[in-house]
């Protein structure tokens, strides 16, 4: 395959990041788009010269695409991934891939059995800082993990509804949760406490918490904590700290710090992680090499499980265990 014909299902802000990025890749051609907002789909089609379709199914049945980016919200994914897989259409499914574990496990099984190339929206794996940290940690034993995702509330109304977004941990902080899995391994047990502190003053009908603390253990035996908040308008933070008996590693976006008995690294890398993510996916589709993708759909399912387990823990007040057999799908 010399050039990959790409379609989009969902044409919101996240999709537009990918659309712009694809213009930098000579071996990708943006050919088709569908969005429930027909006016938005028409604008995108005109801007990029893509054919506009009236439904996701019509786009998938058209023969106009080799691969599709699925950029709909997590509550609007009914049947899309399965239909693409059954048609042999390769897919990049934005995170989170759903809100129901039974459903996403079923999707993952269909995707795996179809043999298509599959990717997910965990773009931070493609940061050079993350790759260098992963290389450094390959022979290290992490004992403790500290992580944070603090910021303000997104303007999207559906984000404020627990049954639409799953809350900040599922929809945003999932990136840091995924980095913990990628660098240290799968989760074993989570215990979460959430609260609504400021959000109801501005949005009385909101059902998501705006602050949360999660304590956890990993399958490796390491323990950690995660702080998540979407009420902080004056301060933001999104980093992962990894601590061993004789080393310290912290990742803050493109910034990496490593300290041990021999190293004192403090570097910042300017990786265009969306470009690297999309380049890897397009090349994987073009060559048939799934190994080029750093986070497949199955990885997204495992990360989702950790975040939904935390939601369950916060709702019940009890710790929730994730068995090793279900940590990977």
TrEMBL record:
SUPFAM superfamilies the record matches: Glyceraldehyde-3-phosphate dehydrogenase-like, C-terminal domain, NAD(P)-binding Rossmann-fold domains
Domain GFO/IDH/MocA-like oxidoreductase: 152-245
Any Pfam family matching the protein: GFO_IDH_MocA
Domain Gfo/Idh/MocA-like oxidoreductase N-terminal: 4-119
GO molecular function, one term: nucleotide binding
InterPro entries in UniProt: Gfo/Idh/MocA-like_OxRdtase_N, Gfo/Idh/MocA_Oxidoreductases, GFO_IDH_MocA-like_dom, NAD(P)-bd_dom_sf
Name assigned to this protein: Gfo/Idh/MocA family oxidoreductase
Source species of the chain: Paenibacillus oceani
